[in-house]
Amino acid sequence: MILKNERYSVQGVDLLEVAEQYGTPLYVYDADKILSQINNLKEAFSELPLKLKYATKALSNINILKIIKSGGCGLDVVSIQEARLGLLAGFEPRDIMFTPNCTPFAEIEQAVDLGLYLNIDNLPFLERFGQIYGSTYPVCIRINPHITAGGNEKIKTGHAESKFGISIDQQQEIYDIVNRYGININGVHVHTGSDFSDVDVFLKGAEVVFSVAKHFKDLEFIDFGSGFKVAYKEGDKTTNVQDLGEKMTTRFKSFCKEYGKDLAIWFEPGKYLVSDSGLLLVNVNVVKKTPAATFLGVNSGLNHLIRPMMYSAHHDIVNISNTSSTNVKKYAVVGYICETDTFAWDMKMSDAHEGDILAIKNAGAYGFSMSSNYNSRFRPAEVLIHKGKVHLIRKREVFEDILKNQILLEL
């Protein structure tokens, strides 16, 4: 995102004109940014047989999935519905890794029927899988390494109390089940959590995976998940993927030599690929001054971007109707939902007025995908800027969408 001729633009496209054409609230995605992030990871791990599996849950619009595919990525999906979206976007079944958690076993069976890569993260399902499929269908296992890493408590997934993965303390039970049924283990997976910036913590998790992986003789890959931290504000510490790439390359090659054959290395970036690609454009409904703060009330809320409220996440906000830096003030930017839906306190931005358009940054990941119809509000439209052109990729909801699946009774 750049300022051009004092107008906020993406790929040379004026965002005020986009807001005027498509209305607000509006999600805007930059395809170039997504592809650039993919290339960053490819360069960081260029000396290894790398496969990237985009974490579909971050942003699942089928057109975004097509952009991801054009960058040479596969998909990581956590539901059969996400898998079906991926297939519709043109991915082959073997491009897709299915990693469910606490789903019905029927979804495991559907994944097998579809021919997906499969990741199992609990002992009961591993046992049942062995009883049904034996050695006839390869499967990956997800390990919980008992490592606390990441940002907010709600996005830490590798600690001992997490619901995700099979505890590293239960590894002997894994081996017993695998040996009992002759299960073909083709991969070992770990994901310690999101927003980690400490490369050494990531490498510590890798050692846990290696300690398990050496017990399986027919592996094709090791999947290290993701959780690469991106910058949400100036000065944020991020994951140094180049440093990680150098250190992981050395250690991974060493492990493969110990193991006796070269394995593929997998990562499942979600937020890292799409977060900075997205903006949520909103309209200032009211400027409300109180003794405590000056509130900018906008035409959006936690129904469109829940991260600030759910994870205490910071999102920089820019007044794109006034890009001058000569009169900067502090504002509390709040939503129109009947809850305390505060996007930001003490946000510095150019002098704002009713009718101005604000751009909430880093909204590409877990923005629209976690949106809702709370307060019976409509979910916003989405547009994609690709090769300098604006494409509508989701229509704004209308009242009929609220009623669509309701059944009216004669009472």
Please provide a brief summary of the model.
With 411 residues, the protein is an alpha/beta fold. It has helices at residues 15-22, 31-44, 62-70, 80-88, 105-114, 123-133, 171-181, 199-213, 241-259, 271-274, 307-310, 399-403, and strands at residues 2-4, 7-10, 13-14, 26-30, 50-55, 74-77, 96-98, 117-120, 139-144, 166-167, 185-190, 221-223, 264-267, 278-289, 294-298, 317-319, 328-334, 342-350, 357-360, 381-386, 389-394.
What descriptors fit this protein?
12 helices, 8-stranded parallel β-barrel, 21 strands, alpha/beta, disordered N terminus, 411 residues, TIM Barrel, 9-stranded mixed beta sheet, 2 domains, Lyase, Ornithine Decarboxylase, Chain A, domain 1, single chain, globular
